[in-house]
Amino acid sequence: MSELVLTEREGAIAVVTLNRPDALNALSDALMEQLVSTLLELDRDEEVRCIVLAGNDKAFAAGADIAELARSSAIDLYYQRRIERWDAIRGLWTPLIAAVSGYCLGGGCELALACDLIVASESAKFGQPETGVGVLPGAGGTQRLTRAVGKALAMDVILSGRFLSADEALAAGLVARVVAEGEWLDEAKRVAQEIASKAPIATRLAKEAVDRAYEGPLQLGLEYERRLLYLAFASDDAKEGLTAFMEKRKPEFKGR
């Protein structure tokens, strides 16, 4: 099997790159299998404190592999459990940054939405054009896009097939940062290094708390946040961070 997913390590961060450039990184079954396997392996590595998921200048991922889908029946899709792979990605402990340039459409947009934050090039275009081929977003697009940008804009994007520019996505809350063309991957790595420099336990718990806010009602989220705070406070990292602040030195976090 060819390398559909490439991995590099840069200190405490890992960069995972989708590698089907001739197909605009269309998310074939084989690519998704390699991607999930790679991400789960990195998630188990305690030395990895942040992961960047990237495409190339032209496309993050332009959607599902249409030819592959056209050969599948509803029962095939049900038994192959393809969509559950997005759940595995969303369930990673390690913070995951989508570095997006060019097309980020359909399943590609859903993949970016499954990440914790998106750093985009000025050239990025986001969309969910599935209704144009007779289906609808099925890997979280109707749910996560609506939560990210609101009902009105999500309806426009999903029903009309409209693409959002990087600046529109930033204004709507879909994207965290927009940078000049050619700088998107470097910026994503820089953000990843910043995240990786923080206390690993506190970072993972904070990520969990924000996810709870995104997915549930306020009062339950506040109660959950409080419990996670107590858990973080019990860590050695918390003692080190507080002591280092008092001693005016840089903390040395161990993830314990």
State the main characteristics.
single chain, 256 residues, 2-enoyl-CoA Hydratase, Chain A, domain 1, Lyase 2-enoyl-coa Hydratase, Chain  A, domain 2, 6-stranded mixed β-sheet, 4-stranded mixed β-sheet, 49% helix, 16% strand
Q: What Rg is obtained from the alpha carbons, in whole angstroms? A: 19 Å
Helix content: 40-55%
Which class of secondary structure composition applies to the elements?
alpha/beta
Could you tell me the mean pLDDT? 89
Biggest sheet character: 6 strands, mixed
Question: How much strand content do the residues show?
Answer: 15-25%
Helix/strand order, N-terminal first? EEHEEHHHEEHEEHHEHEHHHH
- What is the CATH first-level class name of the largest domain? Alpha Beta
Number of helices: 12
Number of domains: 2
Specify the overall morphology.
Answer: globular
What would your notes on this structure say?
With 256 residues, this protein is α/β, with parallel strands linked by helices. It folds into two domains: 192 residues, Alpha-Beta Complex (2-enoyl-CoA Hydratase, Chain A, domain 1); 48 residues, Orthogonal Bundle (Lyase 2-enoyl-coa Hydratase, Chain  A, domain 2). The strands form two sheets. A six-stranded mixed beta sheet has the order 1-2-3-5-7-10, with helices on both faces. Helix 1 runs parallel beside helix 4 and helix 10 runs antiparallel to helix 11. The longest helix has 16 residues. It is globular. The model has no long low-confidence stretch (mean pLDDT 89).
